[in-house]
Description:
The chain is an alpha/beta fold. The chain has three domains: 13-77 and 175-342, TIM Barrel (Alpha-Beta Barrel), CATH 3.20.20.60; 86-165, Beta Barrel (M1 Pyruvate Kinase, Domain 3); 358-486, Pyruvate Kinase, Chain: A, domain 1, CATH 3.40.1380.20. Helices cover 37% and strands 22% of the residues. The chain has 18 helices and 21 strands. It has an eight-stranded parallel barrel, surrounded by eight helices. β2 (38-42), α2 (48-65) and β3 (70-74) form a beta-alpha-beta unit. α10 crosses α12.
Amino acid sequence: MPSPIAPRTRKVRILATLGPASNTQEMIRKLIEAGADAFRINMSHGSHADHAAVIEIIRTLEKELERPTTVLADLQGPKLRVGRFEGDRTILENGQSFTFDRDTTLGTDQRVNLPHREIFEAIEPGTRLLVDDGKLVLRVNSVNAERIDTIVEVGGTISNNKGLNVPDVVLPLAALTDKDRADLSFALDHHVDWVALSFVQRPEDVAEARRLIAGRAALLAKIEKPAAIDRLDNILELADAVMVARGDLGVELPPEEVPLLQKRIVESARRLGRPVVVATQMLESMITAPTPTRAEVSDVATAVFDGADAIMLSAESASGKYPVESVSIMNRIATRVEADPSHSARVHFTETLPDPTTNDAIAEAANNIVNTVGAGAIVCFTSSGSTARRVSRERPRVPLLVLTPSLRTARRLGLLWGAHAVRTRDVSGFEEMVAKAKRMALRHGVAKGGQRVVITAGVPFGTPGSTNVLHIVRLVGDELDRHKAGSGR
């Protein structure tokens, strides 16, 4: 039986995408051992049977390694694609005319089918149409219900079913397609911990998904459309977490805008106490190379310095040649950055003012006490996870040990900055709380004998959202041994 995975000393979480290069039990175990805290299942690829097998592997390893493990199901969303061509492809020249229409016959170098009625209804002359991740750019000349006439501004090869982006307008598309609804039902039936909603344009998209999820999983909104930036705070209010999805943001916006928006999204999410994931092309060269570029290393470091809760690997871990190495180097970069003396100050560039609630007051006070008395750790008792999220928002410099009776809560906290979640029996009284906090802090190695530990909890115990206790204790080195002797173990 493998030994349990020790708590991470690293605060930022690593979210690794699983795919053909990494979906076996042996590989997933290696990814966990290399530093992966959570796993993304991309519902755009693979069958439900494939995904069910991967989830079962993760849950098996979770028991073997005694570590609650987070599973995120990423819905495909409303992907826009052009139709098919004679000969499968054609070449468009700069300055030529080209038409998108409702005709379902094979396309030519003059026209192609566009099977999305909503685009015809929403665009107007002057709107840009981007094909194949922005490699081709076309500008609308005229539009009616049956055809869109354009001029090619940036030409190139266009082939069957290439993706289409419309960055200049909000399209009247539901964020959940029929495929997404089927995938969501599957994901919830298989008890995933998070659901990621793609191509969010408006708060109503998040509200609809939340209604369908009905509390069975936490909801992460992916910010990859310019329209979502305009209503970012409203989207954050409704979502449980947010992702800076830089791939499509970089297609629909000028590339120089993406770093600024990344910082804005991270800061906004942190102020509202929502976990934030930075994703896409973080170690892109490691899809084919065993080491990253220096620019990629700097990119990962920037996200860590900004205080992101999690950083994500996509194709690097899903289909690349070096999935384990990608997780390992990301772990090494993050660990080294967090050890830098400037890290704490940089993380706290973003001011996270507490709300006027008892919960927030105690979370802020816990962090202040750590800094004042030099405590070794914060131990947080929680049933819903809300107390842990509030403490994590303060970005404490010491480990955050989260004790919860709920396995579902422990799993969801895998995307939360600094949290080491442990499922354990709930406590029923104050003295039991103190004894368990001291014992678990020693057992999991988050603090040592002689150090102080700050404890937060809610009374009555087991009541969600009732955080009202803040207590400081000093650990005794032989406390764990005495407990084992007293319990006959």
